[in-house]
């Protein structure tokens, strides 16, 4: 081998850099462990809310020592930025995909036009977007072109308005306007991206990840380690639409008359059944007396149902709200007040009134209802764009608040607004995202200077978040969470423990097996393998890549697959030694002859990993990343490091290296199995297996996960065993049919999947479903379990919701299409690669038929056993990753076999298939060796790697078994039979 010195230097530097990069992870781990021990010593478990107190103390401790030097070359703060990034499934936290509403941006660019053609085009684009891969903007353009008639995009009441006058005039054609609108949309999405980035930077999570997904208007946000999930969701989806409105008072007679008229009209609309009540007593208040004064006929509360008035409670004295309503009734009352026939009842002097709810503090059962003074255009007196700065602070009573500073224009408007409120004795409602945060009155005349304060019942974190979103600015459009995954911290720690266990067991087996089978040479392969693992982690850290649980599976699988290169090399060296060559020559020829097979096998696996990386997302991308890195480092360590060690050992006189042990020396020697002669039996077996699988696929189908059908799923753990059928019956009553409940792992753990309100976005729906789950499952929980204890991320806990996933129907369709394209793409790429390498389409045909055979059998087994196996066998993104890995593994095996056939036949000819059999027999040791080590590794992950990986690993175990069989009994016979007509005995 040439340039040994350079390779040694490179290996040494590569190893040292990897150790250096990983040192930051060990440093942060030790410091954080010290912080945890310190917090536990200061706060006993007997204290109330001890978990939150310990977390706060840990954060304070880390803050105080963050800048102290460690080992002379780093600090904790510096090391934290450079440590190995752990994904959501290892650290807990939240991962969301946000959809920025292009429709909202278009409306804003068109100045909220009332143009019927424009609005009809938006409605048509809404409908088309449900079944199209096109972006919303292109669908809008298509819809507009279909119905526009003489209307142009550059009409004064569409885009040729005052706001866009610098770029669009009414003389421009639609083709001239479209590029400008595309650019404006892209600028708005970039703006949203930057606003979200600023908010996340102020949230306080280490190693957040935010990225755009092409031109789709989607933004992926991952916050590993986030504990307060509700806070994170609100921060991400809040548009930060800040508004200042003047309120109407409780005593306003027009508003009071409206409620009476609305109540009467609702009674007619709803036709309620009269309910008998013994008594109804309400405290006397201004609104009560008002209602009794203005009513034409006295309302008999004891005899009649009052759909609106029956739900109104007098507002607190001194409040600028008009009433209070039980939180459970706010949705119903809000829907009444939005009904067009009810809105028409508003008297002329208050006909444009805007109703808004307060943002109720936690643990309060009612919410205040405000009537805001509005105009025909529904525009607030002051908008949030006048706020130049916002800070979390404390009010005069030392309670958390938010202080705001306005620009010059805002200061003037603020002075006028506070003057009007003072003169009218009304309040000023400060509204953020359509929720009234506070509505103070003005007691001392107009307020100059543009300084104001948001007060209320806030925590310090809440005021920090409000100030954060106000400083970052509002989103240019609403941002809906269309996909989310939430993992509790305790589940993350369990994943680390189970992943580490599977890693150690797999590693130990492979190391011992290599020594058992290859003796001293196995020790050199083990040293190369250990270096390989070090390099994988070092590269992951250097690239800032995220390590996920499937990523650990990828590394563990790399252990099994990296052995393959050493096995190929050692088997070729054994063959050269058997031919009587000297040690040095046998080693040189063995490495040289094995190189082609090693490269072909790893390139085909690498191609499928690249496709997986391109089409996958989240943890699956992490699996592909580690697999790709593992392939590269495996090649380096097997080809160069093992060679260096072997050459060094045999260069010393008197040393023997047999590449086998006494027990394995003659294994698989002189094998003469007639594989081709048995191909018809194999064809029959395969046709039966594939046929049964296809029949099951058409009759039973597959269990599709929420990734592919949309919906929400929850992994819930209880203290004791539960009956999933019993829980399913109860939850189907609550959520309607379609809710699925099954045991997930241990008998005290279930997975609940429901399509309930799958088309409805918003945090409110997520909270509603979690509340229904909590109420329905409360009898199975320990006494005293609160809603906060039950929900994800509440604390380091072992019961309640450990993980939740939400996938909207639109993104589910996209995931499904990507999965199909990934499989088709991998088959096409591999067909072309094998065609280029072997120069005969028959080789490609054999490989692709074998791969198709393997995939169909795996799908068939999942269809047949999906409801029988005691672990999750849903078809989701992880399953697609498994299928693609099976494709890669099957091809790896097939290419090695084909490579040997090409070599043997090239030297000796076909001889009616005898030399094909000879080639197959000569690769048998390598095939079984690699398959065995890979299978043991997969079994290790299957048993110890955690429940979420079991279905994934089962698919791969089946795939490895079937792939080993198909490379010998399907791929090679198909290739041979398709070439047979062109083969003249011993000649091509």
Polypeptide structure, described:
By secondary structure, the chain is of the alpha+beta class. The protein is built from 31 helices and 22 strands. The strands form 5 sheets. An 8-stranded antiparallel sheet has the order 5-6-4-17-22-19-21-20. Strands 8-10-9-15-14-7-11 form a 7-stranded mixed sheet. A hairpin with a 5-residue loop joins strand 12 and strand 13. The longest helix has 39 residues, at 4-42. The radius of gyration is 34 Å and the shape is elongated. The two termini are 36 Å apart. Mean pLDDT is 80; it is low at 272-304 and 984-988.
Task: Give the helix/strand layout.
Layout: H1 4-42, H2 50-65, E1 69-70, E2 74-75, H3 76-82, E3 85-86, H4 88-91, E4 93-100, H5 102-109, H6 116-128, H7 136-147, H8 174-201, E5 209-213, E6 218-224, H9 229-237, E7 242-246, H10 253-270, H11 286-294, E8 323-326, H12 330-338, H13 340-343, E9 354-358, E10 366-372, E11 382-383, E12 387-394, E13 400-406, H14 408-424, E14 428-432, E15 435-438, E16 451-454, H15 460-472, E17 479-487, H16 489-518, H17 520-543, E18 546-547, H18 549-578, H19 583-615, H20 619-650, H21 679-699, H22 706-709, E19 711-717, H23 724-735, E20 740-743, E21 749-754, H24 763-777, H25 787-790, E22 800-807, H26 809-838, H27 841-865, H28 877-908, H29 914-922, H30 924-944, H31 950-979
Helix pairs in contact: 1-2, 1-3, 1-17, 5-8, 6-7, 8-15, 10-11, 16-17, 16-18, 16-30, 17-18, 17-20, 18-19, 18-20, 18-30, 19-20, 19-26, 19-28, 21-27, 23-24, 26-27, 26-28, 27-28, 27-31, 28-29, 28-31, 30-31
């Amino acid at each position: 081998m040439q340039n040994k010195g350079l390779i040694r230097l490179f290996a040494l530097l590569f190893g040292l850099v990897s150790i250096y990069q990983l040192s930051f992870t060990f440093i942060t781990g030790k410091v954080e462990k010290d912080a945890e021990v310190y917090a536990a010593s200061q706060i006993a478990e007997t204290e109330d809310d001890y978990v939150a107190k310990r977390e706060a103390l840990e954060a304070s401790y880390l803050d105080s020592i963050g800048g102290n030097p460690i080992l002379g070359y780093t600090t904790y703060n510096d090391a934290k930025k450079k440590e190995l990034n752990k994904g959501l499934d290892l650290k807990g936290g939240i991962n969301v995909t946000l959809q920025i509403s292009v429709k909202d941006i278009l409306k804003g660019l068109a100045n909220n036009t009332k143009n019927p053609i424009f609005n009809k085009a938006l409605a048509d684009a809404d409908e088309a977007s449900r079944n199209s891969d096109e972006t919303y903007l292109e669908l809008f353009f298509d819809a507009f072109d279909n119905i526009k008639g003489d209307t142009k995009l550059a009409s004064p009441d569409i885009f040729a308005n005052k706001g866009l006058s610098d770029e669009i005039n009414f003389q421009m054609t639609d083709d001239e306007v479209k590029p400008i609108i595309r650019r404006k949309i892209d600028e708005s999405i970039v703006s949203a991206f930057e606003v979200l980035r600023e908010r996340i930077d102020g949230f306080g999570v280490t190693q957040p990840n935010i990225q755009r997904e092409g031109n789709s208007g989607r933004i992926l946000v991952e916050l590993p380690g986030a504990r307060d999930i509700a806070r994170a969701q609100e921060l991400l989806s809040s548009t930060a639409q800040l508004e200042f409105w003047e309120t109407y008072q409780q005593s306003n007679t027009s508003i009071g008359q409206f409620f009476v008229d609305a109540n009467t009209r609702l009674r007619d609309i709803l036709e309620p059944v009269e309910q008998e009540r013994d008594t109804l007593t309400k405290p006397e208040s201004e609104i009560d007396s008002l209602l009794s004064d203005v009513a034409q006929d006295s309302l008999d509360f004891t005899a009649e149902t009052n759909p609106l008035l029956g739900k109104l409670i007098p507002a607190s004295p001194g409040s600028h709200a008009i009433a209070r309503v039980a939180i459970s009734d706010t949705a119903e009352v809000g829907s009444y007040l939005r009904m067009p026939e009810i809105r028409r009842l508003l008297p002329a002097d208050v006909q444009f009134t805007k109703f808004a709810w307060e943002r109720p503090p936690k643990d309060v059962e009612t919410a205040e209802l405000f009537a805001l003074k509005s105009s025909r255009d529904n525009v607030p007196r002051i908008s949030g764009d006048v706020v130049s700065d916002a800070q979390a602070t404390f009010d005069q009573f030392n309670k958390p608040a938010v202080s705001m500073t306005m620009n010059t224009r805002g200061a003037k408007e603020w002075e006028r607004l506070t003057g009007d409120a003072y003169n009218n004795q009304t309040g000023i409602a400060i509204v953020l995202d359509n929720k009234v945060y506070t509505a103070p009155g003005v007691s001392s005349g107009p307020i100059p200077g543009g300084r104001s304060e948001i007060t209320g019942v806030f925590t310090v974190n809440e005021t920090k978040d409000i100030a954060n979103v106000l400083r970052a600015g509002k989103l240019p459009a609403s941002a809906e969470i269309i996909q989310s995954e939430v993992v509790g911290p305790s589940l993350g720690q369990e994943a680390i423990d189970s992943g580490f266990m599977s890693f150690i067991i797999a590693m130990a087996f492979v190391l011992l097996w290599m020594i058992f089978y290859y003796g001293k040479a196995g020790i050199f392969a083990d040293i190369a393998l250990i270096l390989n693992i070090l390099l994988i982690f070092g590269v992951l850290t250097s690239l800032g890549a995220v390590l996920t649980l499937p990523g650990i599976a990828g590394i563990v699988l790399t252990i099994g697959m990296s052995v393959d290169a050493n096995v190929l090399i050692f088997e070729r060296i054994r063959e050269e030694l058997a031919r009587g060559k000297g040690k040095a020559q046998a080693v040189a020829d063995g490495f040289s002859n094995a190189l082609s097979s090693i490269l072909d096998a790893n390139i085909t696996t690498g191609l499928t990993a690249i496709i997986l990386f391109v089409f996958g997302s989240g943890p699956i991308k992490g699996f592909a990343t580690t697999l790709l890195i593992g392939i590269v480092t495996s090649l380096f360590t097997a080809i160069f490091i093992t060679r260096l060690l072997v050459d060094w050992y045999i260069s010393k006189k008197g040393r023997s290296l047999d590449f086998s042990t006494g027990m394995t020396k003659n294994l698989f020697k002189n094998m003469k199995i007639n594989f081709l002669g048995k191909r018809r039996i194999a064809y029959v077996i395969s046709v039966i297996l594939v046929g049964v699988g296809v029949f099951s696929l058409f009759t039973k189908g597959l269990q599709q996960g929420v990734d592919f059908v949309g919906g929400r799923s929850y992994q819930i753990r209880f203290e004791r065993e539960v009956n999933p059928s019993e829980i399913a019956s109860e939850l189907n009553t609550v959520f309607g049919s379609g809710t699925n409940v099954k045991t997930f792992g241990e008998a005290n753990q279930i997975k609940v999947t429901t399509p309930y309100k799958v088309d409805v976005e918003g945090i409110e729906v997520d909270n509603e479903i979690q509340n229904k789950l909590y109420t329905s499952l409360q009898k199975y929980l320990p006494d005293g379990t609160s809603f906060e204890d039950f929900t994800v991320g509440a604390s380091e806990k072992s019961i309640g919701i450990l993980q939740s996933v939400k996938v909207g129907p639109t993104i589910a369709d996209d995931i499904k299409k990507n999965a199909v394209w990934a499989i088709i793409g991998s088959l096409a790429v591999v067909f072309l690669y094998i065609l280029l390498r072997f120069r005969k389409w028959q080789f490609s045909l054999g490989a692709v038929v074998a791969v198709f055979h393997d995939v169909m059998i795996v799908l068939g087994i999942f269809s047949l056993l999906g409801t029988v196996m005691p672990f999750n066998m849903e078809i989701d993104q992880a399953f697609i990753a498994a299928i693609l890995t099976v494709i890669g593994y099957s091809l790896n095996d097939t290419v090695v076999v084909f490579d040997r056939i090409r070599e043997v036949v090239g030297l000796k000819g076909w001889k009616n298939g005898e030399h094909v059999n000879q080639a197959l027999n000569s690769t048998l040791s390598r095939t079984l060796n690699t398959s065995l080590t890979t299978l043991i590794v997969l079994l290790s992950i299957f048993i110890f790697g955690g429940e979420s990986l079991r279905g994934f690993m089962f698919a791969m175990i089946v795939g490895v078994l079937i792939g080993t069989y198909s490379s010998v009994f399907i791929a090679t016979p198909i290739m041979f039979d398709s070439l047979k007509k062109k083969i003249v005995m011993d000649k091509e």
